[in-house]
Amino acid sequence: MAVSGDTDAVVSYNLDYRSKKDDAWYTSAVVLENGKQLRVKFRDFVDSYFDEIFSIADFSTKSDLQEFIHRFRRVSVPIEDNECSRVIADMVVCATYKGDGSVRFFDAIVDAVHYKEHTPEKCLCTYLLVWQHGPEEGNITATSIEDICLIIPGAVDPQVTGFAKLVKEKLGLVYKRPFLSRKTSPNETLDELQDLDSAGYSSYVGSSEGKGRFYPQLSDHDRDLGGVKETGCHHYIILENLEKDLSPTSMMEFVHVQTSITPQAYLFPSLSAETFARGAVVVDSRPKLKRIYEFLSNPNHFIVSSSGRPWVIAEAVLRTGTFDTNLQSCQPLSENKNTGSGLRVVRLGTEEYKRAKQRKDLYMEFRKHLNGLLQRLDTEEKKCLPSGAKK
């Protein structure tokens, strides 16, 4: 339904939208106008003065489109007092912020739950939240069930989908398997876009960093992936022990579900004798990478594939540089199918966690042995060099 300006028309307020003005979530409606722009209307601010308008001309890269897509999700739902057990530690929720006298909504991770016995009519539990954005970003505050809403997965208004497809056509985007291009612009994404007709927007419920804070040493001088420049714009982590048929898109979506950060993801070709693959998670800032690292390295859980293979960060280094490689495809084919999908978090205290820890310990033992062999190879190679060429 097309409306413009102050036209008073019936619209459906069936979305949560994260405003560009203050980064808060608002119950909203969208209107596709003349096939050229999308108007976002706010339920609590009906005057058209408050509308936010997106024009097709506003988008110049895939990253612009992805950032736009993740501003929409289905309306979050309040939790009844007798349903308080649905809120558990490490869950991402939409929470009420009242710190400046206004009532706004931002995403937060449930750091801990202090359960109290109570009647079904009145919840007395306390929830500690780690705010993911907004004025309290990074802080932990305590709240009650009445200030928490569940994030609902699922497809959003088809007008958002329709507008996104128009932007794709304008940008000339085609679905291709993920690849690494040479001298890629920092404003371009390297993975295929999400299927815009699926439940793939910012409609996520999951765990995130957990309770601890795990910061590694930062390195600006790594030489991986074809060379690093000190002025590079990529910030990345190297992952090991991945399934050989893991989809980079699955990696990207999984990390976004768990952390609310949308990275780029790559899977590197492996030798035929190797039973695992290596890959990378890439973002455009160190703070984002730190948050992802905290989640991936949290000792209270493992990320595993459907076969139980745990992700491993063998080197606790956050790297900075540019991707400058001639690889045309980083998605190798594998005889084993469907083992890379079904990524999930297994938590401390479960049998799955014990098995994942055993498999990680085995991999780290192998990695240690391999490092020893590499050092020995380096030593033997230097012995073969002319004396003047030794370093």
Short description:
With 391 residues, the protein is an alpha+beta fold. The chain folds into 3 domains: 15-73 and 157-171, no CATH class; 77-150, SH3 type barrels, CATH 2.30.30.140; 217-366, 2-Layer Sandwich (Alpha-Beta Plaits). The protein is built from 5 helices and 18 strands.
What report would you give on this structure?
- This protein has 391 residues and is an alpha+beta fold.
- It has three domains: 15-73 and 157-171, no CATH class; 77-150, SH3 type barrels (Roll), CATH 2.30.30; 217-366, Alpha-Beta Plaits, CATH 3.30.70.
- It is 20% helix and 24% strand.
- The protein has five helices and 18 strands.
- It has helices spanning 62-69, 158-171, 248-259, 286-297, 351-384; strands at residues 15-18, 25-33, 37-42, 52-55, 72-74, 77-78, 92-97, 104-114, 126-131, 140-143, 148-150, 217-219, 234-242, 264-268, 277-283, 301-304, 317-321, 344-347.
- The chain has a six-stranded antiparallel beta sheet, with no helix packed on it.
- A hairpin with a 3-residue loop joins strand 2 and strand 3 (37-42).
- The longest helix is centred in the last third of the chain and has 34 residues, at 351-384.
- The radius of gyration is 23 Å and the shape is globular.
- 33% of the residues are buried.
